[in-house]
Amino acid sequence: MRVGIPIWQERISPVFDTARRLLLVDLQGGQEQARGEVLLGGETWPERARCLREHGVEVLLCGAVSRPLCELLQAQGIRVVPFLRGEMEAVLAAYCSGRFAEARFRMPGCRGRCARRRGRQRGGNSRGGAS
Prior knowledge:
About 25% of the residues lie in helices and about 25% in strands. By secondary structure, it is of the alpha/beta class. Residues about 110-130 have low confidence and may be disordered.
């Protein structure tokens, strides 16, 4: 399985929509097999999605992501795990061991429920998502 993690200064990038670097990690049985880093191409949502597809990303671990981009990625078979924060190595280790749902890896205000509540956030468009 190939996991993609948008990174900024060795941390998960706070917003996937504007991230420039992507860490690619190949996992097998929860163990890292290989890793590399690429520059994220494209400014539009379809270009971003195409970049992830071209690099074989199956799971995206990310911070905030606009709802339309998240839905586009999911429609293309990419599992999106949004609203994560922290040092990329710690988040990756937690994902591999099944501990990434811990509160310390969640963005402020997300108590593990944000992925389910995305469409009901106040302000609708306040985070760049469609209403």
